[in-house]
Design brief:
The chain has about 70 residues and is mostly helical. It is about 55% helix and about 5% strand. Strands 1-2 form a two-stranded antiparallel ribbon. The radius of gyration is 11 Å and the shape is globular.
Length: about 70
């Protein structure tokens, strides 16, 4: 988790707007998971590495729990 937070901070991702993003609002197609495209639409500063670090099961999408890890 410390490595993940370091990646987020190093990428400049810890902005107030990004932290305020709501999972259901980011999940544009309302399928219960967030793709990299959906995440970047809401959080343009999100790096591919930060997304991959949050994707604990490595399925290419973030669950609500995984998404919460990005938000802190």
């Amino acid at each position: 988790m410390k490595k993940f937070l370091a990646i987020l901070l190093a990428s400049g991702f810890a902005s107030t707007a990004a932290l305020a993003a709501d999972f259901s609002a980011v999940d544009a197609d309302q399928n219960g998971s967030v793709t990299i495209e959906e995440a970047k639409a809401a959080m343009p500063d999100l790096s591919d590495d930060a997304f991959k670090a949050a994707d604990g099961d490595q399925n290419g999408e973030l669950s609500a729990e995984e998404f919460a890890n990005i938000q802190g």
